[in-house]
Amino acid sequence: MALVVICGQPCSGKSSAARCLAEALSDSECKQTVRIVDETSFHLDRNQSYANMPTEKNLRGVLRSEVDRSVSKDNIIIVDSLNSIKGYRYELWCLARAAGIRYCVVYCNVEEMQCRKWNGERREKGEAAYSDVVFEDLVRRFENPGRRNRWDSPLFELSPQIDGVEKSCVAIADAVSYLTKKVDSKSRDVKVLQPTIATQNTRFSDANSLYEMDKATQEVINVIVEAQSQAIGGPLAGISIGQGLLSINISRPVGLPELRRLWRTFIKLTGQTSLSGRPPPSDADSTKRMFVDYLNRELGTM
């Protein structure tokens, strides 16, 4: 039914906010199962997980995969982690969009000095805390959520330093209301994300169709790679894929690893069987059109 992303500086009260929100949802008339996905669920040490970029990337991948497996229209998933990188919050937003569910961000807005103080107090008590090196690095790289970003909206802002974290907090109450409010034709303040054409089920029914889809999308990637090699890293506008097909516009270099990641996500999303409705044509041109549309959407939002 919904995906909730908790974000904030290290030691800003995120886990308390996640627990309070889960309890408040359980106390409400919400009939959906509420589950918190966090590092603790996987017995991950925070200092080791954020010691360097590869381990941090692995941590985000583990959490993202678990969210991907868990999101559905029958439960509410709360992601309790730093979620400090806007690109990562965007990826989570995409998972919610593909599932066709509600999405929101709860931001624990606490001053840096207070976070540093709380981290030191935890260390003195022998509780889980960040090392000074890891803490300073995470604080420096934190990217504040913005209401204008669709992947940060709607945004419910908590002030643990001033108001504490309680189920009665205005932000918690507003989030519960948003997540549980009944949606009908008159609802205007609750947004249920809708899958794009690129995420809708094309229902490829046999091995040959899957082969043709793979072949068509790989042709698109090859065209992009070749065009970029000729441009020597410069911006590209109007990369032609074929007659009658949309062009691809790239304003920044897009490496092969990123293209392959987008390709894998596209293949996965188009193979989902959870969505209803008439499937689009599965010929090569239609597949290319869908993939180009998907790439234009994804590359145009980063």
TrEMBL record:
What protein family does this chain belong to?
Answer: Belongs to the KTI12 family.
* InterPro entries noted in UniProt: KTI12/PSTK, P-loop_NTPase
Which protein are we looking at?
Answer: Protein KTI12 homolog
Question: Where are the annotated coiled coils located?
Answer: none
Source species? Hibiscus sabdariffa (roselle)
UniProt keywords (A-Z) are: ATP-binding, Nucleotide-binding
Origin superkingdom:
Eukaryota
Per its UniProt record, what PANTHER family does this chain match? PTHR12435
